User: What shape does this take?
Amino acid sequence: MTQQRFGKVIRLFAPLYLSNECINNCQYCGFSRDNPILRVTLSLDEVRREAAALRKQGFRNILLVAGEHPKFVSVNYLRECIAALHADWPGVSIEVAPMETEAYCELVAAGADGLVVYQETYDRKVYAAMHTAGPKRNFDWRLETPERAYAAGFRRLGISPLYGLADWRYEAICVAAHADYLLRNCWKAALTISTVRIRPCAGEFQPLTHIGDRELAQLICALRIMFPDVGLVLSTRESPKLRNGLLPLGITLMSAGSHTEPGGYTGAGREKLHQTVRGRIVGPVIPLPPKPRISGQGASEWASAPENATAATAQFQIADERSSQEVADLIKRLGYEPVWKDWDAALTA
Ligand code: SF4
Assistant: This one.
């Protein structure tokens, strides 16, 4: 079914983290405001450097990610970042704090065309327990985000729960209902659904519920059968072995070679690492030379002490550390074509 609708191709994208500042407390996220992590917000030049490194790898689809902090990640800042990349990047998506439609209009005018917003959990009780401080406590405001983005002109929308909070079957039924609603009401946009599971991060949050590899495969197949035209996204949260196996089961979009910390691709911003207390920067922190990444690193090692600083703290630990080229080669070996660019502004009527 996937090959009939999408061809035998896998689209590739990379996340570019702009900032790990955040005013929310989300129990499952390393960027939570109460975690004593090393933070940084990239300057425009640093964003350009990071994007250039990704472009050199071949990517033409980029996802700009940032925590929610209006002081550091303002609409104006995001607009400038998008405008700085627009000429070189045919696909610019954002995964940032939910906004009003008017703000989204500014970002679309600057060149953004995709918006990703995870509801995290569709269970209101669990949602309330997981979001203990900050504007993200408002469940409905978040749930209605894709519609505000659509009204502003985003042509690609991405949704998902974060599996590991409420029961996965409940989340699956809810995300299906949400997707069905969006397909009827935001029908001009292309919709994607991600299948993201909780990963180790600062704060040492442990998943509340379990979804195994077998259930994840079942979920992907069920979503494909129910929504033949919806893109299904698989991130580097999953291991290489599992990603290789899931790839032919309905996946259309994969991230590769990802870093989940600002400056992860070039070391940009390393000299201005700091901690943030109640919106105030505490620091600066003197960074040490980078250390090699350790696979299977324990969650407690994430909130590194300032004197051991080598880089901004990542949002979560990725599981597939293969380079983008290695993933592209694997896609080819499986008989698929890796697609780094799937859109050109000239195609817009
Ligand atoms: S999930 Fe988003 S809003 Fe919540 S702490 Fe992490 S970055 Fe902030």
